[in-house]
Amino acid sequence: xxxxxxxxxxxxxxxxxxxxxxxxxxxxxxxxxxxxxxxxxxxxxxxxxxxxxxxxxxxxxxxxxxxxxxxxxxxxxxxxxxxxxxxxxxxxxxxxxxxxxxxxxxxxxxxxxxxxxxxxxxxxxxxx
Length: 128
What we know:
By secondary structure, the protein is mainly alpha-helical. About 45% of the residues lie in helices and about 10% in strands. It folds into 2 domains: about 70 residues, no CATH class; about 40 residues, no CATH class. It is built from 6 helices and 3 strands. It is elongated. The longest helix has 11 residues. A 3-stranded antiparallel sheet has the order 1-2-3, with no helix packed on it.
């Protein structure tokens, strides 16, 4: 799934931008109608087998689902949907914004949860 904290916007008819701030924004182009439809399916509710079939129904080449998701993952835009649901269930409502922010800093899927756990385990000793 596309990282939920990343907003999607369009720069023009063929250019989609994920993220707002320059350090986190990623621009994809050219994006045609079938690819746009496929991107909207990356919400964490479908597995790769279903996404491959959907890509075919949208008129994309058979390997398009794998190529596109691999490209998005390499760009740090993909979150592991199972890990995201598990992490959201494990953290309090108060820490969910932190989890979303950490997902932007961690390029690897599921990395935000690990950082949040490490942060929770950190201790500071003040002396003097």
